[in-house]
Amino acid sequence: MEDKYLSITAITRYIKHRIDNDNNLKNVYLKGEISNFKSHSSGHMYFSLKDENSIIKAIMFKSAAIKLDFEPKEGMKVLVTGAISVYEAGGTYQIYVSEMQEDGIGNLYIAFEKLKKKLSEEGLFDSKYKKKIPKYPARIGIVTAETGAAIRDILSTIERRYPICETYLFPCLVQGEYAAKDIIEKIQKADDYHLDVLLVGRGGGSFEDLNCFNDEGVARAIFACSTPVISAVGHEVDFTIADFVADLRAPTPTGAAEMAVPNILDLLNLMNQYKIRLNEGILKKVKYLELVMDGLKASFIIKTPNMLFEQKRQTLDLYEEKIKELFMKKMSDKKMILNQIKKNYLLNNPTVLFEKYKMTLTKEIEKLELLNPLATLKRGYSITYLENKVIKDIKDVKPNDVICTHITNGEITSKIMEVKENGKKEND
User: Fold this and answer.
1) pTM of the model
2) 118 to 111, 216, 222, 233, 241: CA distances (angstroms)
3) Residue 100: enclosing H or E segment and its boundaries?
4) CB-hemisphere CA count at 13 Å for 328?
5) For the segment 240-275, what is each residue's pLDDT rounded down to a tens digit?
6) Nearby residues of 236 by Cβ (< 8 Å), 6 or more positions away
7) How many C-beta neighbours within 10 Å does residue 234 have?
8) Tens digits of residue pLDDT in 263-320
9) 125: Cβ–Cβ under 8 A, 6 or more apart, which residues?
10) Using alpha carbons only, what angle is made at residue 107 by residues 104 and 111, rounded to the nearest 5 degrees?
Protein backbone atom coordinates (compact mmCIF):
# COMPACT_ATOMS: atom_id res chain seq x y z
CA MET A 1 0.00 0.00 0.00
CA GLU A 2 2.86 2.40 0.89
CA ASP A 3 4.66 1.68 -2.38
CA LYS A 4 2.48 4.16 -4.23
CA TYR A 5 3.80 7.07 -2.08
CA LEU A 6 6.87 8.89 -3.39
CA SER A 7 9.52 10.65 -1.35
CA ILE A 8 10.09 14.38 -1.73
CA THR A 9 13.48 13.65 -3.24
CA ALA A 10 11.96 11.32 -5.82
CA ILE A 11 9.33 13.76 -7.04
CA THR A 12 11.83 16.60 -7.10
CA ARG A 13 14.25 14.54 -9.18
CA TYR A 14 11.45 13.59 -11.54
CA ILE A 15 10.49 17.24 -12.06
CA LYS A 16 14.17 18.15 -12.53
CA HIS A 17 14.56 15.35 -15.09
CA ARG A 18 11.56 16.55 -17.09
CA ILE A 19 12.73 20.17 -17.08
CA ASP A 20 16.34 19.32 -17.90
CA ASN A 21 15.19 17.30 -20.94
CA ASP A 22 12.88 20.00 -22.26
CA ASN A 23 14.67 21.54 -25.23
CA ASN A 24 12.65 24.73 -24.86
CA LEU A 25 14.22 25.32 -21.45
CA LYS A 26 17.84 24.53 -22.33
CA ASN A 27 18.49 27.92 -23.86
CA VAL A 28 16.05 30.67 -22.83
CA TYR A 29 16.21 34.46 -23.17
CA LEU A 30 14.76 36.52 -20.31
CA LYS A 31 14.59 40.20 -19.47
CA GLY A 32 13.78 41.51 -16.03
CA GLU A 33 14.89 43.57 -13.05
CA ILE A 34 17.62 42.36 -10.69
CA SER A 35 16.39 41.94 -7.14
CA ASN A 36 17.97 40.68 -3.91
CA PHE A 37 21.40 40.66 -5.52
CA LYS A 38 24.33 39.09 -3.65
CA SER A 39 27.88 38.57 -4.86
CA HIS A 40 29.47 35.62 -3.07
CA SER A 41 33.14 35.53 -2.06
CA SER A 42 33.50 32.50 -4.35
CA GLY A 43 32.74 34.72 -7.35
CA HIS A 44 29.26 33.32 -7.96
CA MET A 45 26.33 35.73 -8.22
CA TYR A 46 22.94 34.99 -6.64
CA PHE A 47 19.90 37.11 -7.44
CA SER A 48 16.31 37.12 -8.67
CA LEU A 49 14.78 38.38 -11.90
CA LYS A 50 11.35 39.95 -11.74
CA ASP A 51 8.80 41.79 -13.76
CA GLU A 52 5.45 43.31 -12.79
CA ASN A 53 3.83 39.97 -11.93
CA SER A 54 6.42 37.23 -11.43
CA ILE A 55 9.86 36.47 -10.09
CA ILE A 56 12.44 33.73 -10.75
CA LYS A 57 15.62 32.90 -8.88
CA ALA A 58 18.89 33.07 -10.79
CA ILE A 59 22.53 32.10 -10.39
CA MET A 60 25.55 33.04 -12.47
CA PHE A 61 28.66 31.01 -11.78
CA LYS A 62 32.08 32.64 -11.59
CA SER A 63 33.17 31.25 -14.96
CA ALA A 64 30.41 33.28 -16.64
CA ALA A 65 30.44 36.25 -14.25
CA ILE A 66 34.10 37.15 -14.96
CA LYS A 67 33.18 37.84 -18.59
CA LEU A 68 30.81 40.68 -17.67
CA ASP A 69 31.85 44.20 -18.68
CA PHE A 70 29.63 45.88 -16.06
CA GLU A 71 28.80 45.40 -12.39
CA PRO A 72 25.26 44.10 -11.76
CA LYS A 73 23.36 46.09 -9.13
CA GLU A 74 20.07 45.99 -7.27
CA GLY A 75 17.22 47.31 -9.43
CA MET A 76 19.14 47.08 -12.72
CA LYS A 77 17.24 45.86 -15.76
CA VAL A 78 19.12 43.15 -17.66
CA LEU A 79 18.86 40.73 -20.58
CA VAL A 80 20.02 37.20 -19.69
CA THR A 81 20.59 33.93 -21.49
CA GLY A 82 20.60 30.64 -19.64
CA ALA A 83 19.06 27.27 -18.87
CA ILE A 84 16.14 26.50 -16.58
CA SER A 85 16.67 23.74 -14.03
CA VAL A 86 15.66 22.63 -10.56
CA TYR A 87 17.74 23.10 -7.41
CA GLU A 88 16.96 19.86 -5.61
CA ALA A 89 17.94 20.91 -2.10
CA GLY A 90 15.54 23.83 -2.18
CA GLY A 91 12.91 22.30 -4.42
CA THR A 92 12.86 25.45 -6.52
CA TYR A 93 13.34 26.07 -10.20
CA GLN A 94 15.84 28.70 -11.30
CA ILE A 95 17.76 29.95 -14.27
CA TYR A 96 21.48 29.28 -14.60
CA VAL A 97 22.69 32.41 -16.40
CA SER A 98 25.45 32.07 -18.96
CA GLU A 99 25.28 35.56 -20.46
CA MET A 100 24.00 38.93 -19.23
CA GLN A 101 23.83 42.44 -20.61
CA GLU A 102 22.49 45.68 -19.14
CA ASP A 103 19.02 46.80 -20.20
CA GLY A 104 18.62 49.92 -17.99
CA ILE A 105 17.77 50.55 -14.30
CA GLY A 106 14.52 49.31 -12.78
CA ASN A 107 11.71 51.74 -12.03
CA LEU A 108 11.71 50.95 -8.31
CA TYR A 109 15.40 51.64 -8.03
CA ILE A 110 15.07 54.88 -10.00
CA ALA A 111 12.28 56.03 -7.68
CA PHE A 112 14.41 55.03 -4.67
CA GLU A 113 17.40 57.09 -5.81
CA LYS A 114 15.21 60.07 -6.77
CA LEU A 115 13.48 60.16 -3.35
CA LYS A 116 16.78 59.62 -1.54
CA LYS A 117 18.29 62.63 -3.34
CA LYS A 118 15.22 64.80 -2.66
CA LEU A 119 15.04 64.06 1.08
CA SER A 120 18.80 64.42 1.45
CA GLU A 121 18.69 67.89 -0.10
CA GLU A 122 15.86 68.82 2.30
CA GLY A 123 18.10 67.84 5.23
CA LEU A 124 16.06 64.87 6.52
CA PHE A 125 19.23 62.77 6.75
CA ASP A 126 21.35 65.41 8.55
CA SER A 127 23.02 64.27 11.75
CA LYS A 128 22.01 67.50 13.53
CA TYR A 129 18.40 66.25 13.59
CA LYS A 130 19.25 62.81 14.97
CA LYS A 131 17.84 62.27 18.47
CA LYS A 132 19.92 60.49 21.09
CA ILE A 133 18.90 56.95 21.98
CA PRO A 134 18.47 56.67 25.80
CA LYS A 135 20.84 54.28 27.59
CA TYR A 136 18.25 52.85 29.95
CA PRO A 137 14.79 52.91 28.33
CA ALA A 138 11.74 52.02 30.41
CA ARG A 139 9.18 51.90 27.55
CA ILE A 140 9.94 50.55 24.08
CA GLY A 141 7.55 50.64 21.11
CA ILE A 142 7.74 48.23 18.15
CA VAL A 143 6.13 48.92 14.76
CA THR A 144 6.23 45.70 12.73
CA ALA A 145 4.12 42.68 11.76
CA GLU A 146 2.57 40.89 14.74
CA THR A 147 3.74 37.53 13.37
CA GLY A 148 7.01 36.47 11.87
CA ALA A 149 10.66 36.21 12.79
CA ALA A 150 11.23 39.95 13.26
CA ILE A 151 8.90 40.44 16.24
CA ARG A 152 10.05 37.15 17.81
CA ASP A 153 13.70 38.11 17.51
CA ILE A 154 13.09 41.61 18.94
CA LEU A 155 11.02 40.46 21.93
CA SER A 156 13.30 37.53 22.77
CA THR A 157 16.38 39.77 22.59
CA ILE A 158 14.84 42.42 24.86
CA GLU A 159 13.61 39.77 27.31
CA ARG A 160 17.06 38.24 27.46
CA ARG A 161 19.06 41.47 27.72
CA TYR A 162 16.79 43.88 29.62
CA PRO A 163 13.61 42.27 30.96
CA ILE A 164 12.81 45.17 33.30
CA CYS A 165 11.54 47.43 30.48
CA GLU A 166 8.02 47.46 29.03
CA THR A 167 7.36 46.72 25.34
CA TYR A 168 4.41 47.95 23.26
CA LEU A 169 3.63 46.34 19.90
CA PHE A 170 1.91 48.38 17.20
CA PRO A 171 1.17 45.69 14.59
CA CYS A 172 1.13 46.77 10.96
CA LEU A 173 1.48 45.54 7.40
CA VAL A 174 5.08 45.40 6.24
CA GLN A 175 4.57 44.45 2.61
CA GLY A 176 2.11 45.22 -0.14
CA GLU A 177 0.05 48.10 -1.48
CA TYR A 178 -1.39 49.30 1.85
CA ALA A 179 1.68 48.72 4.00
CA ALA A 180 3.12 52.27 3.80
CA LYS A 181 -0.13 53.89 4.96
CA ASP A 182 -0.43 51.41 7.84
CA ILE A 183 3.17 52.01 8.93
CA ILE A 184 2.61 55.79 8.97
CA GLU A 185 -0.53 55.45 11.12
CA LYS A 186 1.21 53.16 13.63
CA ILE A 187 4.27 55.45 13.94
CA GLN A 188 2.00 58.41 14.68
CA LYS A 189 -0.01 56.38 17.17
CA ALA A 190 3.11 55.13 18.95
CA ASP A 191 4.42 58.69 19.25
CA ASP A 192 1.48 59.51 21.54
CA TYR A 193 2.48 56.82 24.06
CA HIS A 194 5.42 58.77 25.55
CA LEU A 195 7.88 56.00 24.72
CA ASP A 196 11.63 56.18 25.28
CA VAL A 197 12.48 54.62 21.91
CA LEU A 198 10.59 53.22 18.90
CA LEU A 199 11.73 50.30 16.69
CA VAL A 200 10.38 50.32 13.11
CA GLY A 201 11.07 47.50 10.64
CA ARG A 202 10.62 43.97 9.40
CA GLY A 203 12.67 40.90 8.49
CA GLY A 204 14.60 40.39 5.29
CA GLY A 205 13.20 40.23 1.79
CA SER A 206 13.71 41.31 -1.79
CA PHE A 207 14.06 44.92 -2.81
CA GLU A 208 10.38 45.11 -3.74
CA ASP A 209 9.37 43.40 -0.47
CA LEU A 210 11.07 46.22 1.47
CA ASN A 211 9.75 48.95 -0.81
CA CYS A 212 7.08 50.18 1.64
CA PHE A 213 9.97 51.47 3.78
CA ASN A 214 11.10 53.56 0.79
CA ASP A 215 7.83 55.50 0.88
CA GLU A 216 8.12 59.30 1.26
CA GLY A 217 5.25 59.40 3.77
CA VAL A 218 6.94 56.81 5.98
CA ALA A 219 10.18 58.81 5.84
CA ARG A 220 8.46 62.03 6.86
CA ALA A 221 6.54 60.27 9.66
CA ILE A 222 9.82 58.98 11.11
CA PHE A 223 11.43 62.42 10.80
CA ALA A 224 8.47 64.11 12.52
CA CYS A 225 8.33 61.55 15.33
CA SER A 226 9.31 63.09 18.68
CA THR A 227 10.31 59.63 19.95
CA PRO A 228 13.83 58.46 18.95
CA VAL A 229 13.47 55.90 16.13
CA ILE A 230 15.69 52.90 15.37
CA SER A 231 15.22 51.52 11.85
CA ALA A 232 15.43 47.72 11.59
CA VAL A 233 14.57 46.80 8.01
CA GLY A 234 15.82 43.65 6.27
CA HIS A 235 19.34 42.29 6.55
CA GLU A 236 22.67 44.03 6.98
CA VAL A 237 23.15 44.60 3.23
CA ASP A 238 19.65 46.08 2.76
CA PHE A 239 19.23 49.84 2.86
CA THR A 240 15.95 51.75 2.71
CA ILE A 241 14.93 55.40 2.95
CA ALA A 242 13.71 54.65 6.49
CA ASP A 243 17.29 53.73 7.45
CA PHE A 244 18.65 57.11 6.34
CA VAL A 245 16.00 59.25 8.06
CA ALA A 246 15.84 57.28 11.34
CA ASP A 247 17.85 58.42 14.36
CA LEU A 248 19.78 55.14 14.29
CA ARG A 249 20.00 52.33 11.72
CA ALA A 250 20.28 48.70 12.82
CA PRO A 251 21.47 45.94 10.46
CA THR A 252 18.73 43.51 11.57
CA PRO A 253 15.69 43.44 13.89
CA THR A 254 17.82 41.59 16.45
CA GLY A 255 20.49 44.25 16.11
CA ALA A 256 17.86 46.94 16.70
CA ALA A 257 16.81 45.31 19.97
CA GLU A 258 20.46 45.10 21.07
CA MET A 259 20.96 48.79 20.27
CA ALA A 260 17.77 49.78 22.08
CA VAL A 261 18.53 48.16 25.45
CA PRO A 262 21.63 47.49 27.53
CA ASN A 263 22.63 44.02 28.65
CA ILE A 264 21.37 43.52 32.19
CA LEU A 265 24.27 41.17 32.94
CA ASP A 266 26.70 43.96 32.05
CA LEU A 267 24.73 46.32 34.30
CA LEU A 268 24.84 43.85 37.19
CA ASN A 269 28.59 43.42 36.76
CA LEU A 270 29.00 47.20 36.64
CA MET A 271 26.90 47.62 39.78
CA ASN A 272 29.01 45.00 41.58
CA GLN A 273 32.15 46.87 40.56
CA TYR A 274 30.68 50.13 41.85
CA LYS A 275 29.70 48.37 45.08
CA ILE A 276 33.23 47.05 45.58
CA ARG A 277 34.77 50.42 44.79
CA LEU A 278 32.30 52.19 47.11
CA ASN A 279 33.09 49.84 50.00
CA GLU A 280 36.80 50.23 49.42
CA GLY A 281 36.42 54.00 49.31
CA ILE A 282 34.42 54.07 52.56
CA LEU A 283 36.93 51.83 54.36
CA LYS A 284 39.81 53.93 53.10
CA LYS A 285 38.11 57.11 54.29
CA VAL A 286 37.33 55.62 57.70
CA LYS A 287 40.93 54.49 58.14
CA TYR A 288 42.19 57.93 57.16
CA LEU A 289 39.87 59.65 59.64
CA GLU A 290 40.95 57.21 62.37
CA LEU A 291 44.57 58.14 61.75
CA VAL A 292 43.67 61.84 61.89
CA MET A 293 41.78 61.29 65.17
CA ASP A 294 44.67 59.34 66.68
CA GLY A 295 47.02 62.14 65.68
CA LEU A 296 44.80 64.73 67.32
CA LYS A 297 44.52 62.69 70.47
CA ALA A 298 48.31 62.40 70.71
CA SER A 299 48.97 66.08 69.98
CA PHE A 300 50.63 68.27 72.65
CA ILE A 301 47.89 70.91 72.48
CA ILE A 302 45.10 68.43 73.16
CA LYS A 303 46.98 67.03 76.13
CA THR A 304 47.89 70.48 77.52
CA PRO A 305 45.16 72.88 76.33
CA ASN A 306 46.27 75.60 78.81
CA MET A 307 49.54 75.85 76.96
CA LEU A 308 47.71 77.15 73.92
CA PHE A 309 46.08 79.89 76.02
CA GLU A 310 49.41 80.84 77.65
CA GLN A 311 51.08 81.15 74.26
CA LYS A 312 48.33 83.45 73.03
CA ARG A 313 48.63 85.49 76.25
CA GLN A 314 52.36 85.85 75.76
CA THR A 315 51.84 87.04 72.21
CA LEU A 316 49.28 89.60 73.43
CA ASP A 317 51.77 90.94 76.00
CA LEU A 318 54.41 91.36 73.34
CA TYR A 319 52.02 93.32 71.13
CA GLU A 320 51.02 95.50 74.10
CA GLU A 321 54.66 96.36 74.91
CA LYS A 322 55.36 97.12 71.27
CA ILE A 323 52.39 99.49 71.08
CA LYS A 324 53.58 101.33 74.21
CA GLU A 325 57.07 101.72 72.77
CA LEU A 326 55.71 103.10 69.50
CA PHE A 327 53.44 105.52 71.35
CA MET A 328 56.27 106.84 73.59
CA LYS A 329 58.58 107.26 70.61
CA LYS A 330 55.89 109.21 68.74
CA MET A 331 55.34 111.48 71.74
CA SER A 332 59.09 112.08 72.12
CA ASP A 333 59.39 113.05 68.41
CA LYS A 334 56.50 115.52 68.67
CA LYS A 335 57.96 117.06 71.83
CA MET A 336 61.32 117.55 70.13
CA ILE A 337 59.65 119.34 67.18
CA LEU A 338 57.71 121.56 69.59
CA ASN A 339 60.91 122.58 71.42
CA GLN A 340 62.57 123.49 68.14
CA ILE A 341 59.61 125.67 67.20
CA LYS A 342 59.78 127.42 70.59
CA LYS A 343 63.45 128.23 70.02
CA ASN A 344 62.77 129.75 66.58
CA TYR A 345 64.18 133.35 66.25
CA LEU A 346 61.20 134.79 64.48
CA LEU A 347 58.76 133.50 67.06
CA ASN A 348 60.84 135.05 69.82
CA ASN A 349 61.27 138.35 67.82
CA PRO A 350 57.98 138.91 65.91
CA THR A 351 58.76 142.64 65.22
CA VAL A 352 61.66 141.62 62.99
CA LEU A 353 59.28 139.69 60.76
CA PHE A 354 56.79 142.60 60.77
CA GLU A 355 59.46 145.14 59.75
CA LYS A 356 60.63 142.85 56.97
CA TYR A 357 57.17 142.55 55.43
CA LYS A 358 56.48 146.29 56.00
CA MET A 359 59.57 147.22 53.99
CA THR A 360 58.51 144.87 51.15
CA LEU A 361 55.02 146.37 51.13
CA THR A 362 56.37 149.93 50.97
CA LYS A 363 58.46 149.08 47.91
CA GLU A 364 55.47 147.55 46.13
CA ILE A 365 53.34 150.66 46.90
CA GLU A 366 56.03 152.88 45.44
CA LYS A 367 56.00 150.80 42.26
CA LEU A 368 52.27 151.15 41.99
CA GLU A 369 52.47 154.90 42.52
CA LEU A 370 54.86 155.18 39.59
CA LEU A 371 52.33 153.41 37.39
CA ASN A 372 49.32 155.35 38.77
CA PRO A 373 47.88 157.58 35.99
CA LEU A 374 46.53 160.03 38.58
CA ALA A 375 50.06 160.78 39.68
CA THR A 376 50.84 161.70 36.09
CA LEU A 377 47.86 164.07 36.05
CA LYS A 378 49.11 165.77 39.22
CA ARG A 379 52.30 166.66 37.44
CA GLY A 380 50.27 168.71 34.86
CA TYR A 381 49.53 166.00 32.31
CA SER A 382 46.06 165.06 30.98
CA ILE A 383 44.38 162.06 29.31
CA THR A 384 41.95 162.52 26.39
CA TYR A 385 39.19 160.04 25.50
CA LEU A 386 36.98 159.57 22.48
CA GLU A 387 33.95 157.49 23.30
CA ASN A 388 35.71 156.11 26.42
CA LYS A 389 38.79 155.12 24.42
CA VAL A 390 42.16 156.74 25.06
CA ILE A 391 43.35 158.81 22.06
CA LYS A 392 46.89 157.67 21.29
CA ASP A 393 47.23 158.80 17.68
CA ILE A 394 46.13 161.95 15.79
CA LYS A 395 44.49 159.65 13.28
CA ASP A 396 42.09 158.43 15.97
CA VAL A 397 40.04 161.73 15.67
CA LYS A 398 38.53 163.95 13.00
CA PRO A 399 36.78 167.37 12.93
CA ASN A 400 33.47 167.62 14.78
CA ASP A 401 34.36 164.69 17.11
CA VAL A 402 33.48 165.33 20.76
CA ILE A 403 36.36 164.48 23.06
CA CYS A 404 36.75 164.36 26.87
CA THR A 405 39.98 165.50 28.57
CA HIS A 406 40.74 164.32 32.12
CA ILE A 407 42.92 166.55 34.33
CA THR A 408 43.81 166.14 38.00
CA ASN A 409 40.63 167.80 39.38
CA GLY A 410 38.00 167.39 36.61
CA GLU A 411 37.02 166.79 32.99
CA ILE A 412 36.86 169.12 29.93
CA THR A 413 34.56 168.31 27.00
CA SER A 414 35.60 169.76 23.61
CA LYS A 415 34.54 169.66 19.98
CA ILE A 416 37.33 169.34 17.42
CA MET A 417 37.37 172.17 14.93
CA GLU A 418 40.51 171.24 13.11
CA VAL A 419 43.04 168.32 13.12
CA LYS A 420 46.74 168.92 12.44
CA GLU A 421 49.56 166.37 12.14
CA ASN A 422 53.10 167.73 12.52
CA GLY A 423 52.00 171.20 11.32
CA LYS A 424 49.80 169.79 8.49
CA LYS A 425 46.06 170.25 8.12
CA GLU A 426 43.73 167.37 7.56
CA ASN A 427 42.86 168.57 4.06
CA ASP A 428 46.48 168.85 2.94
Assistant:
1) 0.50
2) 11, 10, 16, 21, 11
3) strand 92-105
4) 6
5) 999 999 999 999 999 999 999 999 888 888 889 999
6) 251, 252, 255
7) 25
8) 988 888 888 999 999 999 999 999 999 888 888 777 766 767 776 677 777 888 888 8
9) 119, 244, 245
10) 120
